[in-house]
Amino acid sequence: MTVAIRVIPCLDVDGGRVVKGINFQNLRDAGDPVELAKVYGQQGADELTFLDISASVEERATTIQTVTATAETVFIPLTVGGGVRTVDDVDALLRAGADKVGVNTAAIANPDLIDEVAQRFGNQVLVLSVDARREADRESGFGVTTHGGRRSAGLDALAWVREAARRGVGEILLNSMDVDGTQAGFDLEMIRAVREEVSLPLIASGGAGQVEDFVQAVSAGADAVLAASVFHFGTLTIMEVKSALKEAGFPVR
User: Fold this and answer.
1) Residue 4 class from Cβ within 10 Å (0-12 exposed, 13-18 middle, 19+ buried)?
2) Would you list the DSSP string of 136-167?
3) Distance (Å) of CA 205 to CA 49, 69, 122, 187
4) 178 a catalytic residue
5) d(Cα 54, Cα 76) in Å, to the nearest integer?
6) pLDDT at 58 (0 to 100)
7) Rounded distance, CA 214 to CA 209, Å?
8) Each residue of 193-204: pLDDT tens digit?
9) According to the model, what pLDDT value does residue 66 have?
10) Which residue in 52, 89, 131, 187 is the catalytic one?
């Protein structure tokens, strides 16, 4: 049985509001996360991703109340990330209604966190969020960033993905910081490179601007496609993306 391609809106939350900019800069308000989640659930989204984009920078936990309210509003899988530092943080988010939890900065600082979470909760709940960009001094040409793309982690992106897969993550959320928010298209080279390294489910993020971009990302090896601006501001709808994927021969729900 062929697994359907998932279409996932992303709620980048800052100060309790959904925001979107270019490369995480010049953010503009896109609405209330709970209300947007409800709309996307009604429009046929397969999952939702909720990222507290300032939690790591401000060194605080993800806002539990907002997560709870969002989880109570939608009946599709909810992935939550941002400010997750410990196994207890993961436990709190799962209890608040998250189905999966994304880790990024804390896992880079302490890779053992991946093992600990996978062993306690199972790898199906653990998503590795990789904010990658081109870095000429990395072996693969792709480096990992942290703190919303503000800092280089000093890691080769492909080496990090391989290590995380070995340690027990269940899924990779690959966000290209070079094209994030630009609507210039997904970084297909990066998607192909990561696809060659791991067989884990791969979510492509960053750069979606038109329906053809989603088709190209899946053709490059993505199992799911994630976007924010084009959905938040009405450029595209979930069903338009699904129709394009279906017409291209990919299974959708």
Assistant:
1) middle
2) TTSSSSEEEEETTTTEEEEEEHHHHHHHHHHH
3) 11, 25, 24, 9
4) no
5) 25
6) 58
7) 9
8) 999 999 999 999
9) 87
10) 131
Q: Burial of 187 by CB count in 10 Å (0-12 exposed, 13-18 middle, 19+ buried)? A: buried
Specify the pLDDT at position 52: 84
What is the C-alpha to C-alpha distance for residues 156 and 135, in angstroms, rounded to an integer?
Answer: 9
pLDDT tens digits, residue range 25-69? 555 666 888 999 999 999 999 999 998 866 555 555 557 888 999
The string of pLDDT tens digits covering residues 167-193 is 999 999 999 999 988 899 999 999 999
Within the chain, residue ranges assigned H as helices are: 33-43, 64-73, 87-96, 105-109, 112-121, 157-167, 188-197, 211-219, 229-232, 238-247
DSSP state of 4: P
Residues with Cβ within 8 Å of 199's Cβ and at least 6 positions away in sequence, in order, are none
136 φ, ψ (degrees, to nearest 5): -60, -25
Identify which of 40, 17, 35, 39 has the alpha carbon closest to the alpha carbon of residue 27: 17
Four-residue CA torsion sign, 35, 39, 40, 42? positive
Strand partners, 226: 8, 205
Q: Decide if 131 contacts 175 (C-beta within 8 A).
A: yes
Tokens of 138: 């990395």
d(C-alpha 76, C-alpha 253), whole Å:
12
Q: Which amino acid is at 184?
A: A
Close Cβ partners of 43 (under 8 Å, ≥ 6 residues apart): 237, 238, 239
Q: Is 12 a catalytic residue?
A: yes
| Exposed/middle/buried for residue 43 (C-beta within 10 Å: 0-12, 13-18, 19+) | middle
List 12, 14, 187, 213, catalytic entry: 12
